């Protein structure tokens, strides 16, 4: 894979060239919204590239926060690219504007796809690390660390959604998505299985805690554990719902996961 700097430099040049094409064409159709989106994408790329270039010089204590910022910027970039792809795909197929931008953006996602999967893998590692740290903490420090884990887990779902958007956008422009689909389908299905397992496991644990609390209603430790588990249970159901929408958009059977979600949604207090 190209270095991040080289990749974003090539992409930025492509976007600038696309803007130049629109400026020179004197198009017979209204392309102002597409020009504006190209400018937005250019700003997204510059901001992300700048952040990546500064990462190595940052203090070690700040790097997790900067990684989070990178992830936010990548998610925003792909959301903007998705809007641009929809606009370009709506142009007449033989229009010079569509042909020009399609050609220039053909490389977008070829390297970004693997990069996104790397980011998701690194995010999984950070989640595991902070979960382990939370187990060693207590009080406010533990609650704060657990909250950060929840944020990272939400970002993980958004990252998967970004890959789905990239696939949808490339498909709309007639580009190949086979390699991206090969990687995403298995990862997303495994993620859905993991969430379904967590939900069913937490449901069984909740039932056990509720039984214990019914026989010992003044036990504040059990009550606190049950409330925390309720929050975790509801969060995972929400995550599974988002993953089911992604599976459906990709044409992957989600019936089994829908059954888990519908069954367990009734257990949310």
3D structure, described in words:
The chain is mainly alpha-helical and 269 residues long. The protein has two domains: 176 residues; 93 residues. 82% of the residues lie in helices and 0% in strands. The chain contains nine helices and no strands. It is globular.
Provide a concise account of the structure shown.
This protein has 269 residues and is an all-alpha fold. It contains nine helices and no strands.
Features of the shown structure:
single chain; 269 residues; mainly alpha; 2 domains; 9 helices; 82% helix; disordered N terminus
Question: What's the total helix number?
Answer: 9
Beta-strand percent range? under 5%
What percent of residues adopt helix (DSSP H or I)?
Answer: over 70%
Could you describe the largest sheet, including whether it forms a barrel? none
Regions with pLDDT < 50 over 5+ consecutive residues?
A: 1-10, 24-29
Topology, element by element:
Layout (H helix, E strand, L loop, with lengths): L3 H22 L6 H24 L7 H27 L6 H9 L7 H25 L2 H34 L5 H38 L4 H30 L5 H11 L4
Helix pairs in contact: 1-2, 1-4, 2-3, 3-6, 5-6, 6-7, 6-8, 7-8, 7-9, 8-9
């Amino acid at each position: 894979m190209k270095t991040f700097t080289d990749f974003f430099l090539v992409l930025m040049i492509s976007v600038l060239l696309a803007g130049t094409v629109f400026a020179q064409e004197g198009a017979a159709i209204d392309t102002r919204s597409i020009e504006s989106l190209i400018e937005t994408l250019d700003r997204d790329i510059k901001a992300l590239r700048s952040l990546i270039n500064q990462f190595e010089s940052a203090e070690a204590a700040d790097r997790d926060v900067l990684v989070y910022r990178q992830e936010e910027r990548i998610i925003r970039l792909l959301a903007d690219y998705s809007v641009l792809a929809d606009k370009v795909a709506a142009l007449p197929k033989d229009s010079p504007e569509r042909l020009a931008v399609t050609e220039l953006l053909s490389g977008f996602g070829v390297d970004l796809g693997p990069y996104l999967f790397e980011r998701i893998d690194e995010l999984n590692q950070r989640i595991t690390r902070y979960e382990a740290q939370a187990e060693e903490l207590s009080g406010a420090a533990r609650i704060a660390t657990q909250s950060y884990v929840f944020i990272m887990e939400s970002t993980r779902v958004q990252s998967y959604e970004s890959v789905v958007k990239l696939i949808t956008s490339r498909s709309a422009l007639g580009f190949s998505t086979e390699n991206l689909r090969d990687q995403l389908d298995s990862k997303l299905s495994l993620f859905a299985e993991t969430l379904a397992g967590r939900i069913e496991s937490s449901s069984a644990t909740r039932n056990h805690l509720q039984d214990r609390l019914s026989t010992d209603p003044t036990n504040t430790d059990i009550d606190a554990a049950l409330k925390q588990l309720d929050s975790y249970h509801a969060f995972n159901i929400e995550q599974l719902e988002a993953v089911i929408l992604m599976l459906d958009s990709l044409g992957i059977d989600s019936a089994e996961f829908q059954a888990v979600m519908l069954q367990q949604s009734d257990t949310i207090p």
